[in-house]
Amino acid sequence: MNYRLMLMQHVEASADLTVGVAGVDRSEASRFGVCEPDRNNRIVGWEEEPVDPQADPASSRKVLRFDGHHSRNRKGKSGDRRE
């Protein structure tokens, strides 16, 4: 993943939070936290190590797993400020 592009998109969208995800086969989903995006790529669902996860709308054989990277607006309400 190109994190520079992710950060640029975060700034251009004036987003409060941007989360990096990566596609993984559904058979591997029970090892990860996976997210469900809406058609605007906003996360609307989250499951930790799901047995039967929601498929990525772009590919019925894949799911989107959290890759551990995120960008957050400094004005966020969380006390964690490791941007």
Keywords for this entry:
mainly beta; 4 strands; elongated; 4-stranded antiparallel beta sheet; 83 residues; 1 helix
The gyration radius over C-alpha positions equals 13 Å
Provide a count of the helices. 1
Q: Classify the beta-strand content into a percent band.
A: 35-45%
The class by helix and strand makeup works out as mainly beta
The domain tally reads: 1
Shape: elongated
Topology as a string of helices (H) and strands (E): HEEEE
> Helix coverage percent of residues?
10-25%
Structure description:
The structure is a single chain. With 83 residues, this protein is mainly beta. It has one domain (3-72). It is 12% helix and 37% strand. The chain is built from one helix and four strands. It has one helix at residues 3-12; strands at residues 17-25, 33-37, 43-48, 62-72. It has a four-stranded antiparallel β-sheet with strand order 1-4-2-3. A hairpin with a 5-residue loop joins β2 (33-37) and β3 (43-48). The protein is elongated and about 35 Å long. Mean pLDDT is 79; it is low at 78-83.
Topology:
Layout: H1 3-12, E1 17-25, E2 33-37, E3 43-48, E4 62-72
Antiparallel strand pairs: 1-4, 2-3, 2-4
